[in-house]
Automatic annotation (TrEMBL):
<keyword id="KW-0677">Repeat</keyword>
<dbReference type="Pfam" id="PF22939">
    <property type="entry name" value="WHD_GPIID"/>
</dbReference>
<dbReference type="InterPro" id="IPR056884">
    <property type="entry name" value="NPHP3-like_N"/>
</dbReference>
<dbReference type="InterPro" id="IPR007111">
    <property type="entry name" value="NACHT_NTPase"/>
</dbReference>
<dbReference type="Pfam" id="PF01105">
    <property type="entry name" value="EMP24_GP25L"/>
</dbReference>
<dbReference type="InterPro" id="IPR009038">
    <property type="entry name" value="GOLD_dom"/>
</dbReference>
<dbReference type="InterPro" id="IPR054471">
    <property type="entry name" value="GPIID_WHD"/>
</dbReference>
<dbReference type="Pfam" id="PF24883">
    <property type="entry name" value="NPHP3_N"/>
</dbReference>
<feature type="domain" description="NACHT">
    <location>
        <begin position="159"/>
        <end position="298"/>
    </location>
</feature>
<protein>
    <recommendedName>
        <fullName>NACHT domain-containing protein</fullName>
    </recommendedName>
</protein>
<dbReference type="InterPro" id="IPR027417">
    <property type="entry name" value="P-loop_NTPase"/>
</dbReference>
């Protein structure tokens, strides 16, 4: 009778139905087999009889395993749904049993969270945050953390804090400093920090960013699983994806699990133009316990649509520039050797670069790069006097340095800049090395023409850097082996914008 009751309230699979039928007929089958065995015991060998008994035991083990599986599912269901009625109980037991593939009968919450996170999105902003955070000079950015606007936003007095600054002002680095500060300062159990970094070279849709935020919260607190599980099972069954409306509903339900949720969105201006407003609308319509920091270049038309957002001008402070320059000097062996023990000369250099940088880390970085060829304090001071001030002038100066390296190196550097700037996606080291080694009038390809990556970077005089944070392309291609190499880093030009066709 127990078996019949379970069969009636649970919509089981055909295989399970077959096994349960065998339970009800078990006494008949065993009885029949027993008679057969007695009848033929005198004719058959002991080995044949044992074979039949093993077969019967196999049936019994299979049935017992099935019943144990149903019992465990029923116990789990009963613990979490004590007040459920019989009809909802039947549906929930069905949902527990049917979607689970073979071998996942006792899947833990952690395993399910891992599968849901993989299904939500492949996009991960963690590597970009780690890369940017590692480049931040210790002690910089405190002017922003200690500002009145940031303090009010952090306390929950304002929903959106919008920082705007010119290119090279250090907005991305400042975003990573804020993330790190919030993670350390908050007892982040009830105030998680989630983030996204938009880039010209990485075209993320609003849906991918929304899904990533849900994914980050799900990994942060397993109690949010209850809000995402049903959507996951429905879409997996139907082989579909959630629309933005459903992602908004999921996100809203999940953030209500916490006292507050901090969101950091860096580089809104680098998102595709038709993606910017949907991102802002999504953020603005989230529950009141969400507090968002946006970093971008000035976006007047969009900023006017959100008058309640608190605006902050982002510009590198003199003390931050000074710390940054000191760190860069330590990173360049020739400059470090020249200035070792020369405190007055070092202070004069830092002061001059602060004055000429105009509050832009990018200009300060290129100015320090321009000093690499100096051989003494005298040549260093002479070079400082001729350093250009504006960004365009500094780029012109850098291109002149590239030209001065000689015909072969300058020609190779221009190829590197062209490939790195106009490639449809970030290039790997191997891709760049092979691309600039191609001679169109020479066949076959000669691997002896490949130049070391260190040389390619050096001849570009700081205009091309290794970017360890960018995501590898997902599509298959000629460079799959390179794509999967753990040490591959990607090439990215300083603030190059494919939409403008020039460095900005």
């Amino acid at each position: 009778m127990v078996f019949v009751f379970v069969w009636l309230i649970v919509d089981v699979s055909p295989d399970q139905t077959s096994n349960l039928s065998r339970i009800m007929d078990l006494d008949i089958d065993i009885g029949a087999d027993a008679v057969d065995h007695i009848a033929i015991a005198n004719q058959e060998s002991l080995f044949g009889l044992e074979t039949k008994m093993r077969k019967i035991k196999g049936w019994l083990k299979e049935i017992l395993d099935e019943m144990y599986y149903l019992k465990k599912r029923k116990e789990r269901f009963t613990q979490t749904n004590r007040t459920a009625n019989i009809s909802s109980a039947a549906r929930d037991v069905h949902n527990y049993i049917i979607p689970a593939p073979p071998g996942r009968g006792d899947e833990t919450d952690n395993e399910l969270i891992k599968r849901i996170c993989e299904w939500l999105t492949k996009v991960s902003f963690g590597s970009i945050y780690s890369e940017s955070s590692s480049k931040a000079t210790e002690g910089t950015g405190m002017w922003f953390i200690e500002s009145e606007e940031f303090g009010r936003w952090k306390r929950g007095d304002s929903k959106i804090l919008w920082g705007t600054g010119k290119p090279g002002a250090g907005k991305t680095t400042l975003s990573s400093i804020v993330i790190k500060h919030l993670q350390k300062d908050n007892i982040a159990r009830q105030a998680p920090v989630i983030f996204a970094f938009c880039r010209y070279t990485e075209k993320y849709s609003p849906s991918e960013i929304f899904a990533s935020w849900i994914q980050q919260l799900l990994r942060r607190d397993r109690s949010t699983l209850e809000h995402v599980r049903e959507s996951f099972r429905t879409h997996k069954r139907d082989n579909s994806r959630p629309l933005d409306v459903e992602l908004h509903q999921l996100m809203s339900a999940v953030v209500r699990k916490f006292d507050r949720v901090f969101i950091v969105l860096d580089g809104l201006d680098e998102a595709e133009e038709d993606a910017r407003k949907p991102l802002l609308d999504f953020i603005n319509s989230l529950p009141s316990n969400t507090h968002t920091l946006i970093m971008s270049r000035p976006l007047g038309s969009l900023q006017c649509l959100f008058p309640c957002a608190v605006q902050v001008d982002i510009e590198a402070r003199n003390e931050d520039i000074e710390q940054f320059v000191e760190k860069r000097i330590l990173d360049i062996p020739s400059l470090h050797a020249i200035l070792l023990g020369k405190a007055a000369a070092k202070e004069e250099l830092c002061t001059a670069i602060k004055r000429k940088s105009g509050g832009m880390f990018l200009i300060a970085a290129l100015q320090v790069e321009a000093l690499k060829g100096c051989i003494s304090i005298q040549s260093l001071m002479k070079k400082l006097e001729t350093l250009p001030i504006g960004l365009n002038e500094l780029y012109d100066h850098t291109l002149e340095r590239i030209e001065a390296q000689g015909k072969e190196k300058s020609s190779l550097a221009k190829q590197v800049l062209l490939w790195a700037t106009y490639a449809l996606r970030p290039m790997s080291i191997l891709e760049l090395q092979e691309a600039v080694a191609i001679e169109f009038d020479s066949k076959p390809f000669d691997a002896n023409r490949i130049s070391p990556i260190e040389l390619l970077l050096d001849i570009c005089c700081g205009l091309v850097t290794l970017d360890t944070s960018a995501q590898r392309p997902q599509e298959p291609g000629f460079y799959d082996e390179d794509k999967n190499h753990p040490n591959v880093r990607l090439i990215r030009t300083f603030h190059s914008s494919p939409t403008s066709g020039s460095s900005v």
